[in-house]
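Write out this protein's structure.
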Amino acid sequence: MLPGRGRNGRATGLVRILGTRTAWTPHGDGEFFCPGCGGDRNYQRLTGRRRFTVLGVPVLPRGETGPVVECASCRRHFGSDALDHPTTIRFSAMLRDAVHTVALAVLAASGTCSRSALETAAGGVRAAGFADCTEEQLAALVEALAEDTGRFLDEPCGAGLAIELHEALDPLAPHLALVGRESILLQGARIALADGPYSPAERDVLATVGAALTICADDVTRLLAAARTPS
């Protein structure tokens, strides 16, 4: 037997003769969070047709493959579910809106919109990304929210307010680690405690926040109790 022409050599030669090739066709593009690069990148959505090849020449169809998402930077392919993850810019906006909505809901439930509660809320909202947020703006928004939802201040979380909270928090929760979800709840708790103990309406709102963030009821109770203990 000649050197290099054993069983492995024949198999390697056969692989070089026979193979498959995929021809990709683009079907749209956009921006996504690339799991490979770890950041926002452009992408193309591709579908492919596989063909059996002999000596590199396509001869027989082998069916379709995909769709896949191809990163324009690293060229890696991912499943279409990669597009479910928000981009960094979108995620930041979702988090900012969530903190803002929780702050307004807790203030509306407090019934007083005290200066201390407004200052705590405004500080949290500014830290989340609304750099120009002021106490006066929040007070005006709380008044408008009460009129829009048809509820009075210091009442339990009504259907309209609960819907607002779920709309802001439901899309965010799957993309936040538990510590991040707990942080949003604790920020709401600090606003509620800024002017005294929790009122029943504030507890109701915070329980709704916890549920929307997929925090179990026992953990919500634990976190609200912990927020009352000075650090």
